[in-house]
Amino acid sequence: MRITDIRFRHISKDSKMRAVVSVTLDNELVIHDIKVIYGKRGFFIGMPSQETKMGKFRDVVHPINTSVRQRIQDVIVESYIQAIQGDSS
Length: 89
Fold this sequence. Notes:
By secondary structure, the chain is an alpha+beta fold. It is 25% helix and 45% strand.
């Protein structure tokens, strides 16, 4: 599985939620609304979620294991950092 495209729908340098992205996998599948969040331990991603009838949020799409999540997160965060550095040039 390769991330073949990342599109930023929202970018911020100031808030906790730094970006909202759409990711294309293998030029065949798109995942919308992945959030780039900056927390106490640095950057992480939040997968798309929906609110249940009980008022809780549940991921709509998510990686099955940590290594896949980490690969996706690394590529997205790297792209975010490049995007904001490009804005300040």
